[in-house]
């Protein structure tokens, strides 16, 4: 594969908008036969593309002004959350609740580099990001609220 994304159904992938640069490409699956892709467009906005059942493609802009590549995780079927450091140095997130995307919200921080996200259960999300101070910072959703940023010990 030479950096292109091909449609196994034989459809023209350029019609889906999945052709072009895919900076910071990352993927998540929240259910059977479903793959969601996220990448940074040339104008620094976040693009979301999806592949369902091996034949259905679609994409949309989720906006934002990203300074980092996105990080994404799913915590339940048909639910996912995407994170990125914006040009203001703060971590921002946006989530899909099964029926709609919620607006971007700032999770704060003084960050630079690439965030990482994971979930180890329903209503538990963890996100990590390098700080401007060289420390690894961690914030998590405990099912009710975002717990304030904490530094993590390094190796």
Task: Set down the secondary structure blueprint.
Layout: E1 23-31, E2 34-40, E3 46-52, E4 56-63, E5 71-76, E6 79-85, E7 91-96, E8 105-108, E9 116-121, E10 124-130, E11 136-141, E12 150-152
Antiparallel strand pairs: 1-2, 2-3, 3-4, 5-6, 6-7, 7-8, 9-10, 10-11, 11-12
Name its key features.
4-stranded antiparallel sheet; mainly beta; single chain; 155 residues
Describe the structure.
- This protein is mostly beta strands and 155 residues long.
- It has a single domain (13-152), classed as Fucose-specific lectin (Neuraminidase, 6 Propeller), CATH 2.120.10.70.
- 0% of the residues lie in helices and 49% in strands.
- It contains no helices and 12 strands.
- It has strands at residues 23-31, 34-40, 46-52, 56-63, 71-76, 79-85, 91-96, 105-108, 116-121, 124-130, 136-141, 150-152.
- The strands form 3 sheets. Strands 1-2-3-4 form a 4-stranded antiparallel sheet, with no helix packed on it. Strands 5-6-7-8 form a 4-stranded antiparallel sheet, with no helix packed on it.
Oligomeric form of this entry?
A: single chain
Question: How many strand elements?
Answer: 12
| Classification by helices and strands | mainly beta
What order do the helices and strands follow? Answer: EEEEEEEEEEEE
- Basic shape: globular
Radius of gyration: 16 Å
End-to-end CA span:
36 Å
CATH architecture: 6 Propeller
Q: Order of strands in the sheet with the most strands?
A: 1-2-3-4
Low-confidence segments? 1-19
Total count of helical runs of at least 4 residues: 0
Residue share in helix: under 10%
What is the level 1 CATH name? Mainly Beta
Count up the domains.
1
What is the CATH third-level topology name?
Neuraminidase
């Amino acid at each position: 594969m030479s950096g292109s994304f091909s449609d196994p159904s034989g459809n023209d992938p350029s019609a889906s908008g999945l052709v072009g640069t895919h900076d910071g490409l990352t993927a998540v699956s929240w259910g059977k036969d479903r793959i969601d892709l996220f990448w940074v467009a040339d104008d620094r906005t976040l693009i979301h593309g999806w592949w369902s059942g091996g034949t259905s493609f679609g994409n949309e802009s989720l906006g934002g002004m990203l300074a980092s590549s996105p990080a994404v995780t799913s915590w339940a079927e048909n639910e996912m959350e995407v994170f990125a450091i914006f040009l203001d140095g703060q971590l921002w997130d946006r989530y899909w609740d099964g029926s709609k995307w919620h607006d971007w919200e700032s999770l704060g921080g003084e960050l630079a580099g690439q965030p990482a996200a994971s979930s180890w259960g329903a209503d538990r999300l963890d996100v990590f990001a390098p700080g401007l101070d060289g420390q690894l910072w961690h914030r998590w959703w405990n099912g009710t609220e975002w717990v304030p940023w904490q530094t993590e010990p390094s190796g």
